[in-house]
Amino acid sequence: MPSRVYLDWNATTPLRAEARAAMLAAYELIGNPSSVHAEGREARRLVEDARSSLAAAVGALPRNVVFTSAGTEANALALSPGLRGRSGEPVRRLLVSAVEHASVLAGGRFPAGDIGQIRVTRSGVVDLDHLRALLADGPPALVSIMAANNETGALQPVAEAAGLVHEAGGLLHVDAIQALGKIAFNINAVGGDLATFSAHKIGGPKGVGALVVTEGLTGLEPVLRGGGQELGRRAGTENVAGIAGLGAAVKAALQALPEDAERMTSLRDRLGNGLRCIAGATVFAEDVERLSNTVLFTAPGLKAETAVIGFDLEGIAVSSGSACSSGKVQPSHVLSAMGYDATVAQGAVRLSLGWSTEPDDINRALEAWRKLGNTLLRG
């Protein structure tokens, strides 16, 4: 019986060998990283080594890295009304792109009435003219725009947005969870003031994330209070093993990035071209720059739930988009924001590749789609 093919890397990745080794070593330690004795200092060393690794990877200072339980918590921590913009005035509203992850669309700690949405184009890219108009029509804002969309893979114009936001006295938060390890990302180069990351998207463990802020940012209010951990920005004993795994995964992912990106781009394009030749399939956001590993497609009359089950029965793991809906297959809010009707949004299927994806995996996915297309869309 052939082995299964995993094509849902944007949902989560396998644990890298380097991360597993780092975690196993960390599990042997007994100290609390806040303790001052030798056992505690050894645990603290692992946390700080990982902090330095992530900081170096994204162009930040280690003291500006805050570890969290996940990317969702990191986003909630970032979306704080107490933040002070470059003018020194606190941000008083939140503007988010319409294609953000659900944890950003929820608005963090901003009241619902203080949250606005930025339109995107038909290709799923932020409409900078609309952002400019929204910034001009109100007080300083915190703006949240992801670096790369988790469903379409479309890269967003975060550097251009940063210029507009800063000119208006605001701050820019970048959800870089899908970008890290797939494209080069430097918080200073893109002009971000805050950026969020997640370990399990780059071969680290599930349940570990991080918020990175630029030097001098003030007004960040913790979500979890009670202890002085993470320089007072996030209470609670650090997940030492998980954080060690994140640090090791960051190093491994960045070392392999150039080679992995080139190889996956070739596989992605071959997959997209093959899908389009079967059952009238359409690949979304093909006309803009995308992640090297992501293909979101549909075909006339396709139902995502049926297609995902069909691929699964053929031994191939794919998804209908974001994996944060408690296992439910729901219409894509990303495609709705791009202007597609509900029928199209309900039929989108995402295939995402990773460092161990092989050409034969693409062959099997295309053969499965050929069978499914002929079966599901017949007549």
TrEMBL record:
InterPro entries: Aminotrans_V_dom, Cysteine_dSase, PyrdxlP-dep_Trfase, PyrdxlP-dep_Trfase_major, PyrdxlP-dep_Trfase_small. Its cofactor is pyridoxal 5'-phosphate. SUPFAM superfamilies: PLP-dependent transferases. GO terms for molecular function: cysteine desulfurase activity; iron-sulfur cluster binding; metal ion binding. Signal peptide: none annotated. The keyword Iron-sulfur applies. The keyword Transferase applies. Keywords: Iron, Iron-sulfur, Metal-binding, Pyridoxal phosphate, Transferase. It catalyses: (sulfur carrier)-H + L-cysteine = (sulfur carrier)-SH + L-alanine. Residues 5-364 form the Aminotransferase class V domain. Belongs to the class-V pyridoxal-phosphate-dependent aminotransferase family. NifS/IscS subfamily. Catalyzes the removal of elemental sulfur atoms from cysteine to produce alanine. Seems to participate in the biosynthesis of the nitrogenase metalloclusters by providing the inorganic sulfur required for the Fe-S core formation. This is Cysteine desulfurase.
